[in-house]
Design brief:
Strands 2-3-1-4-6-5 form a six-stranded antiparallel β-sheet. Helix content is 37%, strand content 12%.
Length: 266
C-alpha cells in the first residue's frame, strides 16, 4: 500500500480493520449545498431514502453496520436537535427547553444551544455511506471504536500532521450530528463520547466512542499508521513490535518475564 501515491478509501478501511482491529465501517458523510451536485448524485448513485423521518444517528448506524448508501433531505431527518445544527430550523423555545435536562435553568440551557457549531443555512441534503463504498469525496468521516483504538488514531493524526496536542471537545448532547458539523466547520478531527441520544438511537450500547475526521485528513493518518507498523513491526502502543491490541499487562513490570527453558528447567 505504501508504494501508492494516495491510499484509496478501501485501503484505509482495510488498514483500520486489520491493524487496529476496528469493528465497524467508517462512514463517509457528504453535505449537499449545490443543486447540480445533488441532482448528479441522484442520477448516478444507487441509494436509499428513509421510510420515515429518522435521527442522524440512525443514518450513521445503517451505513456503519449494514453498508447502506443513504440520502436525506430535511423531511428525512426527525431529530430537532440535528435540524437546528444542520441549519434546517432556528433557535426557539422548544429547542432551548429540550436542553433543560442538562442545565441549571433556561439561561444555561440556551447557552448550551448557542455554543454549538452550525452548518450554513442552505443545506439541501446529506448523504452517508460506508467509506469503502463512498461514491463521493467525503466532507467528514465518522467512525466508532473503543477508546484504545481511538487513542491510537489520535496519536497517528498528531504525528502525521505534526500538530500537538490532540484537542478533544464534548458538547452536552448532539455528539454525532454536532460532532460531524464541528469537524466540517473547523477542519480539525475530534474524539468525543456518545451523548445519551446517540447511545440509544445510534446503536452504541457497547461503550464505543466517536472519532470524527475531516475527509482529507484520514489518508495521511492511516498512511503514518502503515509507516510506523513497517518501522516497528506492529501497530500497538505502548510496546512496539506487537500487533494490536498488544501485550495488555503492566508496563515494564519486572515479574512478567518469560524465556525459553534452559536445561535445568526441563
Amino acid at each position: 500500500m505504501l508504494t501508492k501515491k494516495t491510499l484509496s478509501n478501501a485501503d484505509m478501511v482495510f488498514a483500520l480493520r486489520n491493524l487496529l482491529r476496528m469493528k465497524y465501517y467508517p462512514v463517509a458523510v457528504k453535505f449537499f449545498f449545490d443543486q447540480k451536485e445533488l441532482d448528479e448524485f441522484k442520477k448516478t448513485v444507487d441509494y436509499k431514502i428513509s421510510a420515515h423521518p429518522f435521527t442522524f444517528c440512525h443514518y450513521l448506524a445503517a451505513s456503519r453496520q449494514r453498508g447502506d448508501i443513504l440520502l436525506s433531505p430535511e423531511k428525512g431527518l426527525g431529530c430537532t436537535n440535528a435540524k437546528y445544527i444542520f441549519g434546517w430550523k432556528g433557535k426557539d423555545e422548544g429547542e432551548i427547553k429540550s436542553h433543560l435536562k442538562y442545565a441549571r435553568d433556561m439561561k444555561q440551557a440556551e447557552k448550551i444551544v448557542d455554543i454549538k457549531k452550525r452548518l450554513p443555512q442552505n443545506l439541501l441534503a446529506f448523504a452517508t455511506a460506508p467509506l469503502h463504498r463512498s461514491p463521493y469525496k467525503p466532507d467528514v468521516i465518522h467512525g466508532m471504536s473503543d477508546v484504545l483504538q481511538a487513542y491510537h488514531l489520535g496519536n497517528d493524526w498528531s504525528a502525521a500532521m505534526d500538530i500537538m496536542p490532540f484537542q478533544m471537545t464534548m458538547t452536552m448532547n448532539s455528539s454525532a450530528c454536532h460532532g460531524v458539523t464541528q469537524v466540517f466547520v473547523e477542519k480539525k478531527p475530534n474524539i468525543t463520547p456518545m451523548c445519551s441520544g446517540s447511545y440509544t438511537a445510534g446503536k452504541t450500547e457497547q461503550g464505543e466512542i466517536n472519532w470524527i475526521w475531516p475527509g482529507d485528513q484520514l489518508e495521511p493518518t492511516v498512511r503514518w499508521l502503515l509507516e510506523r507498523t513497517v518501522r516497528d513491526s506492529g501497530s500497538s502502543f505502548p510496546r512496539t513490535g506487537e500487533t494490536y491490541p498488544g501485550f495488555n499487562m503492566c508496563k515494564l513490570c519486572p515479574f512478567l518475564v518469560w524465556h525459553k527453558p534452559t536445561e535445568k528447567d526441563k
